[in-house]
Specification:
This protein is mainly β. It is built from two helices and eleven strands, in the order βααββββββββββ. 11% of the residues lie in helices and 57% in strands. The radius of gyration is 14 Å and the shape is globular. It starts with a strand and ends with a strand. The model has no long low-confidence stretch (mean pLDDT 91).
Length: 127
């Protein structure tokens, strides 16, 4: 149950470069740069609901079971199928344009998204 809870962005590294690589418009990047993203996670064993609340109250909720293919959605509304894996306490999944991992370290939620050599690292505190 380590992931369960409500989390708020504390810091992020590589935000601009990552967003530009994904083709996010400059005005949207600017609006989101200092936004405190809220991530809500419910967990029952290997079953998760992972909700992210973005600027202007845009919300993406993905339900998945570790090790089973699930239909997921990106912030842009693109649906895709993916299998979330759990390795060494880290959740890991391939999105269409990047690889994403989530882990709890030092009581913080650490999310790392990697697209080629560009890395976005977001650290969130529990609310």
């Amino acid at each position: 149950m380590a992931f369960a809870g409500r989390w708020e962005t504390e810091s992020q590294e590589g935000y601009d470069d990552f967003c530009k690589l994904l083709g996010i418009p400059a005005d949207i990047i600017e609006k989101g740069r200092d936004y405190k993203l809220i991530t809500e996670v419910t967990q029952a064993g290997n079953d998760f609901t992972w909700t992210q609340i973005y600027p202007t109250n845009a919300k993406v909720a993905n339900k998945f079971t570790v090790g089973k293919e699930s239909e997921m959605e990106t912030i842009g509304g693109k649906k895709f199928k993916a299998t979330v894996q759990m390795e060494g306490g880290k959740l890991s999944v391939n999105f269409p344009n990047y690889h994403h991992t989530s882990e709890i370290s030092g009581g913080k939620l650490i999310e790392t998204s990697t697209a080629g050599s560009v890395v976005l690292k977001r650290t969130s505190k529990k609310l």
